[in-house]
Design a protein that fits this description.
By secondary structure, the protein is α+β, with helices and mostly antiparallel strands. 27% of the residues lie in helices and 26% in strands. β2 and β3 form a beta hairpin.
Length: 223
């Protein structure tokens, strides 16, 4: 899904979401309002961030609105179409802190935000709790990376290296499932498990790692 040539050599997460049955026709102004109001600032730099500077603020175009934010070692791109299609691509947070590593706890946080951000956005667009949302999450630029952790309170015994370049996980769930704590934890665990198993079968515990991090995020904290 990425189109920027340099991103093929960089780690990035992207996702695409669409409404299964609903047909929307939303004005660019209302798309911008929904995108602004559904941002989640828990991690610091929101997924689908809405900036106000002239160079980086979302711009209207024929199919909806889109934003490109780049500078230094960060690149974010997102589009929100009038029909409700939502797409995001962003380079890994990990690459702003170290080289050739993937933080398993950071992936749990970011994947959690993907689900909550998407559900919150569609709520702002007037979509009901039972509406089906198709969502695909892809992580690319994994080959050669080592599994690590961001938190000083966690540790990884041994070395786990990835030789696969990318992994995708797809979902089709009612909007409410992306926000329900119990179901959300299952979706996050499934996504992150798909990723970390590529790192020499890295073992991940839902109860010890995923659930506490998701609980903290739902309370507005990074666990």
């Amino acid at each position: 899904m990425a189109t920027e040539e340099d991103l093929t050599k960089r780690g990035h997460m992207e996702f695409a979401a669409r409404l299964r049955d609903s047909v929307l026709e939303v004005s660019p102004r209302d798309l911008l309002k929904a995108a602004e109001e559904s941002q989640i600032h828990t991690f610091g730099w929101p997924i689908g961030v809405v900036m106000t500077t002239e160079h980086h603020k979302p711009k209207p175009y024929q199919e909806g609105i889109r934003a490109v934010i780049h500078g230094g070692d960060r690149y974010d791109f997102w589009t929100l179409k009038k029909n409700g299609d939502y797409y995001y691509l962003g380079t890994f947070f990990e690459d702003t802190r170290t080289e050739n590593k993937l933080f398993v706890d950071t992936r749990v946080v970011r994947v959690t935000e993907v689900f909550l951000r998407t559900a919150g956005l569609y709520q702002k667009l007037g979509i009901g709790a039972e509406e089906i949302i198709d969502l695909k999450i892809r992580h690319s630029g994994l080959s050669g990376r080592l599994m690590a952790v961001a938190s000083h309170n966690r540790d990884i015994m041994g070395q786990y290296k990835c030789t696969e370049e990318e992994i995708s996980t797809e979902f089709s769930e009612p909007l409410k499932n992306y926000q329900d704590p119990s179901r959300l934890k299952e979706l996050v665990f499934r996504t992150v498990k798909d990723i970390v198993e590529l790192f020499d079968y890295f073992p991940i515990s839902k109860e010890e790692l995923v659930d506490p991090i998701v609980d903290s995020f739902l309370l507005g904290r990074i666990g």
